[in-house]
Design brief:
About 30% of the residues lie in helices and about 30% in strands. With about 750 residues, the chain is an alpha+beta fold. The chain has 4 domains: about 1-210, 2-Layer Sandwich (Alpha-Beta Plaits), CATH 3.30.70; about 215-285 and about 310-390 and about 505-595, 3-Layer(bba) Sandwich (FAD/NAD(P)-binding domain), CATH 3.50.50.60; about 395-500, Alpha-Beta Plaits (2-Layer Sandwich); about 610-755, Glutaredoxin (3-Layer(aba) Sandwich), CATH 3.40.30.120. Strand 2 (about 35-45) and strand 3 form a beta hairpin. The longest helix is centred in the last third of the chain and has 22 residues, at about 530-550. It starts with a strand and ends with a helix.
């Protein structure tokens, strides 16, 4: 038996006409040879969407229908009534084990009496985001038979094994499906294997070849650190995403970023790749700066309060690690594929891709993110402009990876500058690489390279047009600026590049966004480019995931630009100022280092963050709204034989609400936290974890929800400035979204509406 499902989304006001067009041919469809079933179902969550379901005895019966007059007449009738659709608009599947694709579809038919419809709908709203986190689960539709109390939960899974692994664990199934469990006492389940659609498969709803070969929730252009981070964060949340990159093979040489900031290491801990990064990298333990051969300062970067130090790791290793992590989530970048064009409407983006061998592919996505670097095609197609124009330094620079024989301390980033009359006229930066005496050298390129441009502007970015610098060129620079007797050897790689800098006027338009070098370009000073791009992705991805699920407040995606663009502008300006100075602020080098490492990053001006405090000094010393939420240790949880960190509670993909209480909290206040916990979980559609942090002398009810964790050493109280009862809401990106002292449930719910106000 073969089933087809054709999704049709009516244009506004054409819903009744689409139903009438189906009724006009439905009787004829039922009379065709081999037809086993035909029906028009409604999308329970989209009043303009319909799904035509037909079942056929064999392939011949299906082919006769698709190529026959009945399907053609229906296609002609609905063509002017419908919006464009993707491959998910036409799916073919077989009941049973046979099929050409690995994915399966499960059709669960349930009966919902009219007097319990509100109960079912409320429960289903909670189930949908829970299911999105189940490994192997792809997506589902809730469909309803018109004029009846029969619903179909039609779910797609990556494999049959994933599905049966889930239902084979009653505890898991109950956890995710619990809110609608009462309606699953009697149900009908059918399992289908989804066919892999052949190219140019005819779609009976349009009467012509399918224009869209594939669909995804989010199309990510660019498989560098920014694009890979975006994909990992979406995939961790169960969002279907696709990553493309025009390079046929990933880079294998250290031609780009090399420094991994302390804050990025924290993000990698959350993503589960920090150990791999440490194993592949080298710690950058400090910095030394020399001017005209004299050491002007030396600073250790091994600060005891940092969760991680500054790591040296070539970008190709970063990309390898993130690519491997993404593969564990079932996503692999499609290389040798380039974005050629796209259009967008209110419901998504239609992208044309140029593939290997000169072919093309059309993809329908709900959102598109351009992480395609300095020469971004997405930025070009969106018509984004660099505010004030794209700036370029007049000098050409060269890079080289060499072994250096000198007496400098290991692990230190070294900056050598030469000044004449107080103005810098030459510079060299040496960054340690993994391997004995190995360094990345960056310095001004010899004059002959600029002469090769004919006196005209040299190409921005890394240059393929100019010859590669030689070992002699590197040695000459070291001879001019490094200590006497310094020798370079074993040149592995070299290049010439020009520094460009600027930031786009907008970070997106409609359903299309830019991030990383597609949005901002920096001088290499401070190693900001890659790390800032990763921070862009970290900010955007959790918001995109909520939008894809339909639970985001209307302004949530707009906050990406509101929060990230001012930071990008600040970082670009700071990097430009630092490029040709010995240091910005010698009076407070520690603060400057923490700022460069993004440890002081705050979204305090964001419209998403807020507070409710009883007095000006309430929560004094604690992180403010928008600030990074710092980690603390010494927490104790019953049944756990070792102390916990705060990050053990906040780690993951959801918001975290931390409610604090000490001995001054009475029994009624403690009991009220249970009601608050349930209310915020419902408001956030399950996208929030709640914990009660208590001082060692607090009175805790034995069966209290949320779970209780003891601030055994008082580190949380001291770091977050809490006393009495208070709360902190930590966002998925690790920043404080809201805080209050004492508990202010109404203000908290108002803040959550800024994030989850779109939840149905």
């Amino acid at each position: 038996m073969i089933r087809t499902m054709v999704r049709i989304r009516a244009r506004p006001g054409c819903e009744a006409a689409v139903e009438a067009a189906w009724r006009a041919v439905a009787g004829e469809v039922g009379e065709l040879a081999g037809n086993l079933m035909h029906d028009l179902l409604l999308d329970a969550n989209d009043p303009r969407a319909f799904v035509v379901v037909t079942e056929w005895a064999d392939e011949k019966a299906l082919a006769d229908y698709e190529n026959g007059p009945v399907a053609a007449r229906f296609a002609d009738a609905v063509r002017p009534l419908r919006e464009p659709s993707g491959v998910d608009g036409y799916r073919v599947m077989r009941e049973g084990p046979e099929g050409t694709g690995p994915r399966i579809c499960v059709d669960v038919e349930v009966t919902v009496p009219a007097d319990r419809l509100a109960e079912f709908e409320q429960g289903y709203v909670q189930v949908a985001p829970r299911m999105a986190r189940v490994p192997g689960y792809v997506r589902e539709d809730l469909l309803r038979q018109p004029g009846s109390d029969i619903f179909h939960i039609f779910a797609e899974w990556r494999s049959e094994a994933d599905f049966f692994r889930w239902i084979g664990n009653p505890a898991h199934a109950k956890e995710e499906a619990g809110p609608i469990a009462a309606f699953l006492l009697e149900f009908r389940r059918r399992l289908f294997r989804l066919e892999a659609p052949p190219e140019n498969q005819p779609n009976p709803s349009t009467g012509r070849e399918v224009d869209v070969q594939s669909t995804t929730d989010v199309l990510i252009v660019g498989a560098g650190p920014t694009g890979l981070t975006t994909a990992v964060e979406l995939a961790r949340r169960g969002i279907d995403c696709r990553v493309i990159d025009k390079l046929a093979t990933p880079p294998s040489q250290a031609d780009k970023a090399i420094g991994v900031h302390c804050r990025t290491m924290e993000l990698w801990e959350d993503q589960g790749v920090v150990r791999e990064a440490m194993d592949a990298g080298i710690w950058l333990t400090g910095q030394m700066v020399f001017v005209n051969g004299q050491e002007i300062h030396r600073m250790s970067w091994e600060l005891p309060e940092l969760p991680y130090a500054h790591l040296g790791l070539p970008q190709y290793e970063t990309e390898r690690i993130l690519t491997d992590r993404l593969a564990t989530l079932g996503v692999r970048p499609q290389r040798g594929t380039e974005l050629a064009a796209f259009t967008q409407d209110d419901d998504g983006v239609l992208a044309t891709l140029a593939t290997t061998g000169g072919g093309t592919e059309t993809v329908r996505a709900k959102y598109l993110v351009g992480c395609d670097g300095a020469h971004s095609k997405v930025r070009e197609l969106l018509g984004l402009k660099f505010s004030g124009g794209l700036g370029q330094f007049p000098q050409l620079f060269m890079l080289g990876d060499v072994d250096v024989d000198w007496g400098m301390p290991e692990g230190h980033l070294l900056r050598f500058m030469h000044e004449t009359d107080g103005q810098m006229d030459n510079m060299l930066v040496a960054v340690p690489l993994r391997g004995e005496s190995r360094y990345r050298i960056a310095t001004l390129a010899p004059p002959r390279f600029f002469a090769q441009t004919g006196g005209k502007d040299a190409p921005p970015g890394f240059s393929e047009e100019l010859a590669e610098p030689t070992l002699a060129d590197v040695q000459a620079a070291l001879g001019q600026l490094a200590p006497a007797g310094t020798r370079a050897s074993n040149l592995r790689w070299s290049s010439v590049f020009r520094i460009s800098h600027g930031i786009v006027d907008r970070y997106g338009d409609g359903r299309v966004f830019v991030a990383g070098d597609a949005a901002h370009l920096h001088p290499p000073a401070g190693g900001q480019g890659m790390n800032t791009g990763i921070q862009d992705a970290w900010n955007l991805a959790w918001k995109l995931a909520l939008a894809v699920r339909g639970v985001a407040a209307p302004g949530l995606l707009a906050s990406y630009e509101t929060e990230r663009r001012p930071k990008g502008e600040e970082i670009v300006g700071r990097a430009v100022r630092m490029a040709f100075t010995d240091e910005l602020d010698r009076e407070d080098l520690k603060r400057q280092f923490l700022q460069e490492m993004s440890m002081l990053l705050s979204y305090s001006d964001s419209p998403l963050v807020g507070e409710s405090v009883s007095a000006p000094k309430a929560l004094a010393g604690g992180p403010k709204p928008g600030d990074r939420a710092p980690d603390v240790g010494g927490l104790r949880r019953r049944g756990v034989g070792h102390p916990l960190r705060l990050f053990d509670l906040t780690r993951g993909t959801r918001h975290t609400l931390l409610i604090y209480a000490d001995a001054s909290a009475d029994e009624a206040t403690m009991a009220a936290t249970e009601k608050l916990s349930a209310a915020v979980r419902e408001q956030a559609c399950g996208e929030i974890d709640v914990y009660l942090l208590v001082s060692p002398d607090a009175r805790v009810l034995s069966l209290l929800d949320p779970p209780a964790v003891t601030d055994h050493g008082g580190e949380f109280r001291a770091t977050y400035g809490v006393r009495g009862t208070a709360l902190y809401l930590i966002r998925p990106d690790g920043h404080v979204g809201f805080r209050s002292l004492p508990l202010d449930a109404d203000a908290l719910r108002a803040n959550l509406r800024l994030v989850f106000g779109g939840a149905r």
